[in-house]
Amino acid sequence: MGKFAxxxxxxxxxxPWIISFCLFLSLFLWIISGPSHADNAExxxxxxxxxxxxxxxIVEKFQSIPTHKxxxxxGRTAPDRKxxxxxxxxxxxEDILVRKGVRVKKDQPIAHLDMADLDLRLxxxxxxxxxxxxxxxxxxxxxxxxxxxxxxxxxxxxxxAEARASVRNAELILKNTMVTAxxxxxxxxxxxxxxxxxxxxxxxxxVVVLDPLVIEVNVSERHIGQIEKGQKAEVFFINGLSIExxxxxxxxxxxSSTNTFSVEVEIPNAGADISAGMSSEV
Length: 282
What we know:
- The structure is a single chain.
- With 282 residues, the chain is of the alpha+beta class.
- It has helices at 2-13, 17-32, 37-50, 118-145, 150-175, and strands spanning 74-86, 91-96, 103-104, 109-113, 178-180, 185-190, 197-198, 203-220, 232-237, 242-250, 260-267, 279-281.
- The chain has five helices and twelve strands.
- The strands form two sheets. A six-stranded antiparallel barrel has the order 1-8-11-10-9-12. A four-stranded antiparallel β-sheet has the order 5-4-2-7, with no helix packed on it.
- A hairpin with a 4-residue loop joins strand 9 and strand 10.
- Helix 4 packs antiparallel against helix 5.
- The N and C termini lie far apart (115 Å).
């Protein structure tokens, strides 16, 4: 038996392909035999783990829409128009016809200056004018008849023109004794009292227009190119009030100190609910 085993071993060693064939045959039989029970259990467990339901997914579609770029600036409300009325003649304040803070219409009297003898001066100027008119007509008639030269006629004509100018000047001075409003507005301040003497040019009253109001803001050179006249602007006040306005003015030259451009926004103020000088965000 030992001799047979020795001969078989020698036979196998000299023929290695037999060993390779046996290994290949064993591997082939193991593959076709299928998975083991342990493998079947693992596959079953894997299938059970894969059978867990997936989470729900919500799909939402988005559509692009244009957006508006905003610039926040700060300023103060100011009257649309304001003027200080001065005395046109030197005289004493005879009467003040309005109170501070009241609304006035265009050409409404505000203060009356003492006329003194201005009415007499006007009467005198008119009388002189009447005489110069008669002299002119007589000179004209004499020249027509050849009884008077051209020089005398020219002198009469010049005297008439001078008398006419005197009448006009007296009428204007008399008219200027009444200080009137140049436009519809509010009497913001009175600088005089009854009995005060004013010289020509002295302030008498200040009239402002609060409808509309104007807000001046400073815009940097970075944003000035995106602002146009007529653009809408939303204005917010410290008391919570907001109102829409319009850009009405854009400066063409920047400030040398701040390198910003002045822009005016106009807002309606029919009821004068908004005062001038209020801080605002535009």
